């Protein structure tokens, strides 16, 4: 552990390296995610990679997921790199874009969404 890690905390693991995340990087990825929602709930986490608040919320959410046994597909969208996909999700589901944001989809319909400190695994299990 480096000196700065000791002072400021350990470096956070890259979200793409977490085993439960599936990336959304194209309209085909998004279509596959929506298709999967007809088999079980899915969750899409829209993350701004340049925002400290979004990073903090993401880290806290990942801790919740790691301590859970929920059978959900978790999708990760880097909204700075893929803003058109973020806009498509907002338009297709009639949900105002926010960041960070978690959208839970079941049977092709958004059943829950939250942003900032309201993001929690409880959105999925309820």
UniProtKB/TrEMBL annotation:
InterPro entries for the chain: BrxC, Thioredoxin-like_sf
Highest taxon of the lineage: Bacteria
SUPFAM superfamilies reported for this sequence: Thioredoxin-like
Protein name as annotated: Bacillithiol system protein YtxJ
Source species of the chain: Chryseobacterium populi
Taxonomic classification: Bacteria, Pseudomonadati, Bacteroidota, Flavobacteriia, Flavobacteriales
């Amino acid at each position: 552990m480096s000196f700065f890690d000791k002072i400021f905390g350990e470096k956070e693991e890259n979200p793409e390296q977490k085993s439960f995340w599936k990336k959304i990087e194209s309209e085909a990825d998004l279509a596959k995610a929506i298709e999967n929602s007809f088999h079980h709930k899915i969750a899409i986490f829209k993350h701004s990679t340049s925002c400290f608040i979004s990073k903090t919320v993401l880290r806290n959410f990942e801790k919740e997921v790691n301590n859970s046994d929920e059978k959900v597909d978790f999708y990760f969208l880097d909204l700075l790199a893929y803003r058109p996909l973020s806009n498509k999700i907002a338009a297709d589901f009639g949900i105002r874009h926010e960041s960070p944001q978690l959208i839970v989809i079941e049977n092709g319909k958004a059943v829950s969404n939250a942003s900032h400190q309201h993001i929690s695994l409880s959105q999925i299990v309820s």
